[in-house]
Amino acid sequence: MYITEHNGWLCIQDSNVFSAQQTFTCGQCFRWQPQPDGSFLGVVRGRAARVWDADGALCITGTHADFDAIWRDYFDCDTNYADICSSFAIDDFTASAAQFGAGIRILKQEPWEALCTFIFSQCNNIPRITGIVQRLCEQWGEPLRFAGQTLYTFPTPEVLAALTPEALAPLRAGYRAPYLIAAAQAVQTGVLRLDDLCDMSTDDARHEVMQLRGVGRKVADCFLLFGLHKLDAFPVDTWMKKAAAYYSGDMKRFIDSPYAGVYQQYFFYYVRSVYGGKT
What we know:
The two termini are 35 Å apart. The strands form 2 sheets. Strands 1-2-6-5-4-3 form a 6-stranded antiparallel β-sheet. Strands 7-8 form a two-stranded antiparallel sheet. A hairpin with a 3-residue loop joins β1 and β2. The protein has 279 residues and is α+β, with helices and mostly antiparallel strands. The protein has helices at 20-25, 64-74, 81-88, 92-100, 111-119, 126-140, 157-161, 177-189, 194-199, 202-209, 217-226, 238-246, 252-255, 260-275, and strands at residues 2-5, 9-13, 33-34, 40-44, 47-54, 57-61, 143-146, 149-152. Helix content is 46%, strand content 13%. The protein contains 14 helices and 8 strands. It is globular, with a radius of gyration of 18 Å.
């Protein structure tokens, strides 16, 4: 990994191609805001940043200390995505999908934020989820001024646990609002310990989180992959069912892989973008 520090920003280069557009719009996160210049603004662990890519390199505002403290882990910079991408490309279809989504990285998101956002994902699409999450943060998060804009932290479980479904009506989250409150109350009271889930096997963590009201297998697997970074989780949704229909090979070999979740993103991003349009 080769890092160059400039006036207020860093450029991180290695064998892994990074695409901000692919990473932030592939359905794994909903809080990075696209800017007119092609960069994205976001807040992670209370820290705001601007992110973009240049010739496959990751570029981000901040210092080397910021990178070591937050962004190296968040962008999973120590995983060899180039090798994972190559291992996925075993036929014409998967080779095309791997090339198409080669800049995707699986972000190590905050577990609480990922749990909430994927509770909102039930029977929903990416623009609507993004809108719900943005309204949630604007209403109950803490404001941060950055790059001339006001961004917001993600609300804590303690804040959301005290709310009622009626209070959440402005989110326009529908039947999902009580599920969010139930999750917040479970985390606040210690019924669900997110730190403990990180140390569990994927199967055990899935079982625990599915005890929450409104959390089924698809939401649980999205949370495991994007919130706990369990790369062997393979969420199945409408687009993955379409991928299975388009792909003539044996998808089970990917589902059973230690990198199943990365493979899932290659399938998802490729089929959604090339075959189905964006929803």
